[in-house]
Write a structure and sequence with these properties.
Length: 181
């Protein structure tokens, strides 16, 4: 592929936006929720050990086990409260974003040049030089492009035609770094 500017647009809709954002939210929270469930397991285990040590009248160890279980279980419930709060805020923001999308242009414009990657939608436009760009493919379904390690662009492979997807991947292979998430 020679050094040319490659530009195309891909459609966006409320369904696509919701699907991609829900996938990203669940991907980010999945491991954290697993770890939090382990906290509950340890809390229950230490409660049982505390009760057993009380039965055997070893109150020093019982205090240790029960104190530790209270700390771990309270951490579990605190984390679940945070998760529910963030989930509620996430869906409120997503619903607001979807209502904004419905009133504006629905296409996303992508540009790949020898010097930069550009993204434009109805509310913003970004340009990044190639050494700031990493990418990966998630679940063999989403093309996940990261710029400056704080901004992500997610394309559903089903919404990009095969020719444009191949050219996009070729450009990313040549210019950006592959980074597994």
């Amino acid at each position: 592929m020679n050094e040319e500017i490659f530009t195309y647009n891909t459609p966006s809709s409320a369904k696509i936006l919701r699907q991609i954002n829900e996938y990203e939210f669940n991907r980010q929270w999945k491991n954290n929720l697993k770890k939090n469930n382990k906290n509950l397991f340890w809390g229950i285990l230490f409660t049982i050990l505390g009760v057993i040590t009380i039965i055997f009248e070893n109150y020093t160890f019982a205090g240790f086990f029960l104190g530790f279980s209270v700390a771990v279980i309270s951490t579990y419930f605190n984390y679940m409260t945070q998760y529910k709060k963030y989930k509620k805020a996430f869906y409120q923001k997503l619903d607001r974003e979807i209502s904004n999308l419905e009133g504006n242009s629905k296409d996303i414009f992508l540009e790949f040049s020898p010097y930069h990657f550009s993204f434009k939608n109805y509310k913003s436009e970004y340009k990044f030089i190639w050494n700031e760009i990493t990418y990966c493919i998630l679940d063999d379904r989403y093309l996940y492009i990261t710029a400056n390690s704080f901004m992500n662009f997610i394309l559903d492979k089903a919404n990009v035609d095969k020719e444009n997807l191949d050219k996009t991947l070729l450009y990313l292979e040549m210019k950006a770094k592959f980074k597994k998430i």
